[in-house]
Design a protein that fits this description.
- With 523 residues, this protein is mainly alpha-helical.
- Among the domains are: 1-112, no CATH class; 115-214; 391-517, no CATH class.
- It has helices at 2-9, 16-29, 32-44, 53-63, 67-79, 86-98, 102-111, 117-130, 132-144, 151-164, 167-180, 186-198, 202-211, 217-229, 233-245, 252-265, 268-280, 288-300, 304-313, 320-333, 336-349, 354-366, 370-382, 413-429, 445-453, 456-467, 484-496, and strands at 391-396, 399-404, 474-478, 501-504, 509-513, 516-517.
- It has a six-stranded mixed beta sheet, covered by helices on one side.
- Helix 20 packs antiparallel against helix 21 and helix 22 packs antiparallel against helix 23 (370-382).
Length: 523
């Protein structure tokens, strides 16, 4: 670029192509400042920006996540009457989408007179990042309009299925990929492993993995991670050894997946051994993600002092996930002293994250320290922080249904609550006692029980029981961690109703069957 710029400066005459080459060169190099500066010179010259120059500078706004400059360039586009140009408008849609300004991306997308596959793929990908359900709706619309997806589009749709956890859609996408003869290369195959793992079927993920002719370290790591999501630590460890025997060297991601799997399956000795040898034997230097997994591993096992000592001995920068792992372990084992230390560190790093206040408040509530609970709620109010609401999703007849706590907005709400009350009666006769420790409000015991009865996952399961044929598993997804009372409730449902229930929460998968859970109550 230095030589190109030297020649460019020596030119007596410059046309739109010459300017575009320079703007594009800086954009490709990632030199955002020089790209903007050169584009400003274009605007000051007597050369009007065209549909070759503008996409380059718009891409720079996209790559730099510079929405302020992106809006400025949008104004330039309007001024020069280029909004109807397909290349320019597609670039703006892409820029707004990658900057997560979905409303503006959608408005431009809907105004476009013609939409090619690239534009559809960009918009589907944008929704996949923030609203996976809408992403799949848009994919259906694209198919209805006769636009045939390519492999890149299918990877985007596969990722949307993974985020939504929609098994029916996952199977449809898999069938389409097979029917169209797309090869399971590293990118598409790995995405499908992740999709099936996050839709609740580690067996289907393994089938895809075994069908792949070519696998790289990313593919192996994805399959190890899949076993980790489902609490199958032994299988993850076995696959790691198989990877090594195939001559594939592990990387940072491999060890994160492996340590995560050990943590969620209670393989303490194996996890610590992998952590000890990853640098010495494999040349992979531990970073904060690896330390977080080990803190989680020790914390879940009740070795809180060891976990805290490991944090204190760290020479790399600590982040919020590390302290969150320790705080979560303190909640499980009711260690108030360490919980306060972890929470103070979290609040220093992220004072505006409502989740940290909620987690510490729940720990105080479980200990009956209601004064502390009130204090943290007041702090949240003063700082205008809001708790993230809990949602549970269930897919029935190709449609996704969403529930919140105490939800009565569903068209079949009456039938859902009738099923739920009957279910609770059966469970109580079998010995179920609501665990009111999981209610973080200082109210009467009877009120606490009523609050537990209408948790979103219980409503979703009741709906599943009246909507999904007997013999088929009930699959639900939750945006937060499943609470201990709901975990016990679902175990008993699986035994008394003789139904398999698969729950995907914010941390992992739980497979309930015949009164037990795949996590072994270790989550």
């Amino acid at each position: 670029m230095d030589d190109a710029h030297y020649l460019f400066d020596g030119m007596s005459m410059r046309d739109s192509t010459t300017w575009s080459v320079m703007v594009g060169g800086f954009a490709k190099l990632g030199d955002y400042g020089s790209c903007y500066a050169t584009f400003r010179e274009v605007l000051r010259s007597d050369v009007a920006p065209d549909n070759y120059t503008l996409p380059f500078v718009i891409r720079t706004c996209r790559d730099g996540k510079d929405i302020r400059m992106g809006r400025v360039i949008h104004e330039v586009v309007l001024k020069h009457g280029l909004l109807l140009d397909h290349f320019v408008c597609s670039s703006l849609v892409d820029m707004y989408a990658k900057c997560l300004v979905i409303e503006d991306a959608q408005k431009l997308f809907e105004r476009m007179l013609s939409k090619d596959l690239v534009t559809w793929t960009v918009m589907i990908g944008a929704y996949a990042d923030c609203n996976a359900y809408e992403s799949l709706v848009l994919f259906d619309r694209m198919m209805e309009e006769g636009v045939v997806p390519d492999k890149i589009a299918m990877v985007t749709v596969v990722n949307a299925c993974a985020k939504l956890g929609a098994m029916h859609r996952a199977r449809f996408v898999n069938e389409y990929i097979l029917r169209k003869g797309f090869s399971l290369d590293v990118i598409l195959g790995t995405a499908m492993i992740d999709m099936y793992a996050k839709c609740g079927s580690v067996e289907s993920a393994r089938e895809v993995f075994d069908r792949m002719r070519e696998k790289n370290v990313i593919s192996w790591s994805a399959m190890i991670a899949a076993y980790g999501y489902h609490g199958q630590g032994k299988e993850a460890i076995d696959l790691f050894h198989m990877m090594m025997s195939c001559g594939i060297l592990p990387n940072r991601v491999t060890f994160v997946s492996l340590l995560y799997a050990c943590s969620h399956a209670g393989h303490i000795e194996e996890g610590l051994r992998f952590f000890d040898v990853m640098w010495e034997e494999y040349g992979v230097r531990p970073d904060v993600k690896h330390y977080t997994c080990v803190v989680d591993l020790l914390g879940r096992a009740g070795k809180l002092d060891e976990a805290f000592k490991l944090i204190e001995a760290m020479t790399i920068e600590k982040d919020e996930r590390l302290w969150s792992a320790l705080l979560g372990a303190c909640r499980i084992h009711k260690n108030m002293e360490l919980a306060e230390k972890a929470a103070n560190s979290l609040l220093e790093l992220q004072p505006q994250n409502a989740g940290h206040y909620v987690l510490l408040s729940n720990i105080y509530a479980k200990a009956g320290r209601w004064g502390k609970v009130a204090k943290f709620r007041d702090m949240m109010t003063q700082r205008k922080l809001k708790k993230v609401p809990g949602w549970t999703w269930i897919e029935v007849d190709n449609k996704t249904h969403q529930f919140s706590v105490g939800d009565r907005t569903h068209p079949q709400s009456k039938e859902i609550y009738e099923m739920l009350m009957n279910l609770i009666m059966k469970l109580e006769m079998a010995g179920y006692v609501p665990d009111t420790d999981f209610v973080s409000q200082d109210v009467e015991e009877e009120v606490k029980q009523q609050m537990l009865y209408t948790h979103s996952e219980k409503l979703a399961i009741a709906f599943g029981l009246i909507s999904i044929p007997e013999g088929d598993p009930i699959r639900i997804s939750k945006n937060l961690r499943v609470c201990g009372d709901c975990h016990t409730f679902i175990k008993m449902v699986s035994a008394i109703m003789r139904r398999s229930v698969i729950v995907r929460d914010a941390n992992r998968f739980h497979h309930f069957s015949e009164g037990t859970c795949s996590c072994g109550d270790y989550w």
